[in-house]
Amino acid sequence: GAEIDPGQVPWHRLTITVADALAAKIRENYSPSSVNKMFAAIRGTLQVCMLERWFVLPEGVAFRDHYDALVRSFKSRVVRGKRHGRLLSDAEIRKLFEVANTTEACILARGIGAGLRRAEIAKLRPRDIDQATGRVAIHQGKGEKDRATFLPASPLKVVAHYLKSDGTTGRMRFADKNAE
Prior knowledge:
Layout: H1 16-29, H2 32-51, H3 63-73, H4 90-99, H5 102-114, H6 118-123, E1 135-138, E2 147-150, H7 153-162, E3 163-165, E4 172-174
Antiparallel strand pairs: 1-2, 3-4
């Protein structure tokens, strides 16, 4: 069939055949999250066309029936990928701390205690953790958004015990247990 350019679709004249073809093209050319976002935008556009009664309808078809049929074409049927990872049990967490060295224990305490993502742990700087309150400032985390979370008392003790700043880069370094 002919190429379909979403920017050139006359939405008020959209037919089911063209809608199905456009949806198929979008599904094959974009990631699942992009497909879902595009479909949501298209459904919103179709809703405006219906509410404003802009649709040019086939003979004998009601506005609502036409709208419902078009929206079905753009329902997200994209299956998202399998989740990676899982929550650790308390026993698994205890076992990790039993075998962890000093550096690993501090990383685990920050990550598990504050619910941080891997990239957030890597970006964390000493000034981002308020050792008095346990507040952890996350800068440009998922979605490049800033957020705050808190370390509970036990993980905060682990972090406070091992965390020191090297004073130049502001990056964290860890003292050896025996070096105190």
